[in-house]
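Researcher: Next entry in the queue.
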Amino acid sequence: MNKKLFIIAITATVLLTACGSTEKNDSKKTAENSSQAEITSTVSEDISDSSEKSEESSAVQTESSEKTESSSAEKKKEKTVSDSSKASKEKNDTNNTIIINDQNYTNNTTDQNGTSTNTNDNTSDHDGGQQQDHTDTKKMFEDSLNNVSVEVGDESIVETGTVNGRYYRFTIDLSKWDEFTTTDDMLQLSRLFWQSYPRMYERYADITDPPTDVILAIEDEGYEVAEAGGNFVHLHDQWLYSNPDDYDCIVHELAHVIQAGWENPFLEYSSYIELFADVCRMEYAMDNGYYNDNSWLLQTVDGQDTRKTSVRFLVWLDYMYSNGDIDIMRRFCEVCYNKKYSSAEWDDAWQEIFKGTELEGKTADEAWELYTDSDFAYLSSYSEKGETSVLLQDYDIRGKF
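Model: Structure for this entry, 401 residues:
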């Protein structure tokens, strides 16, 4: 009996031990599974965080890349603009001796006579640029312009002189110059002024009282070619750059200064304003038309076939019927300027202009018929430089005036 109980006790112990071991293993597995789940969750969170951080990092890198590309593009743009500006500024280096390298000029003042004076010689401006030395330009101009004083500053060339006892002042304003017009071109324009303007002034000044102080602004903006008003003439900076040798367009503009304002209601045709300016261009062209006759034509009757449009008709009247006592174009200018006749009364105006000449008693239309019957209306005004046109071989127009 005791032996049975002992065996039963042993068996129970074994069973209890086995059962405990199973529970322990199950608990361990449960704990391990729980721990594994926690680890998995942590890893998942870490992966998620890492992913978010990776996305943030990618966004930052993308933004940084965009900034880098933008910065690179901006630098490239700046370089392109800089290169373009540099190319524009350097294109005339061989001809320009007063090239402006910086828009921040050093101190300059203007004295009471209007002369530009440098008040800060041999110093640098606030951007580190060196002031311009204009000695060579001044000498070049004074050597070419007889008896004319020249002062050259960063933004102007001021010329003063006396012609036939009358004082003139000519200023080339460079405040908006972008260096397309070369210094050599400016010298030619200066020569043109001193050749042409005083002669036009002497002929017409007692009628219109034009200024003796004239400003020519060379500007890379505004009007297409040129324009004049008061004592101010504008020349587009790129005009001579694109149309070399067309210097005498400025004679046309100076003639508008001489006109001193004609008003349309008192003109037979409003086109007379421009026709008169072109008459002056033909008669007072620089160097006897050396440049003008090679680049600009006095249109024949085939090209300008009415009194309203014909410059050559007025030149013909002036050449054929002006003499020592009678000046046809002075009379024409006086009638236009003094507002003596309305546009409807120009039959009377022409009678005043023709008085004392072979055209007295004739109408303007009858004078036109005489013009169109002459070879003057058809001969070419074109010539190569240094040569004489067919028209001027037969009719010494400029020699007369």
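Model: Confidence is low (pLDDT under 50) at residues 1-131.
Researcher: Noted, moving on.
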